[in-house]
Write a structure and sequence with these properties.
single chain, mainly alpha, extended, disordered N terminus
Length: 190
């Protein structure tokens, strides 16, 4: 479960929550309260339910054969283990290069309004969570660039941001409902 949280979960979700809160005018204190409350509740509810499902249904008896991270053996995950990346030791030069690249992108992003690359987007697209983010990040960047150039910030603030927030809330709601339905379908014993 921990790998799921670092690759696809809370590590990337928390900054997005603050970004959406900034766009909607929500105070960061309120966002922090919601993040902490949901994190604590998910741990209190999720771990016992996960253990219960593992011991009741049997992890190997599920239709997927695994309880968590089933996509790792289906799709493969070349970015999940440093040993599988082919990066030679020592790792410190690679980490230092990533830090320097992030600092350079941050300075350019803060200094020049027209600079198109955000450090978080580059990290997500090029390696922090795999190459699966590359095409969606490119599509989002192209869409935002077109909206800003065609209608300016007024169109962005009045139309594009509410559509994006509505899409994200709808997507998260469907993920939640899909998770409940999948839990009943795949893990509940007959």
């Amino acid at each position: 479960m921990g790998e799921n949280n670092t690759n696809f979960g809370m590590v990337f979700t928390i900054p997005f929550c603050y970004k959406i809160g900034y766009d909607t005018g929500t105070h960061p204190r309120d966002i922090t309260k919601i993040i902490l409350t949901s994190g604590i509740l998910s741990a209190i509810i999720g771990y016992p339910v996960g253990l219960w499902l593992s011991y009741t249904a049997g992890t190997n008896n599920t239709r997927m054969g695994l309880f968590d991270s089933w996509w790792h053996w289906v799709f493969g995950q070349p970015w999940g283990d440093v040993a599988d990346l082919g990066i030679s030791e020592p790792l410190l030069p690679y980490v230092a290069a990533g830090i320097v690249l992030t600092i350079i992108l941050s300075v350019l992003n803060f200094r020049f309004v027209w600079w198109p690359l955000d450090p978080a987007g580059v990290a997500m697209a090029l390696g922090a969570s795999g190459t699966g983010w590359l095409l969606p990040a490119l599509i989002g960047w192209v869409a935002k660039t077109l909206v800003i150039r065609v209608g300016g910030t007024k169109l962005n603030d009045s139309v594009a941001i509410p559509i994006a927030i509505g899409f994200l809330v709808g997507y998260w709601l469907l993920l939640f409902l899909g998770g409940l339905i999948a839990m009943i379908q795949f893990f509940m014993p007959a």
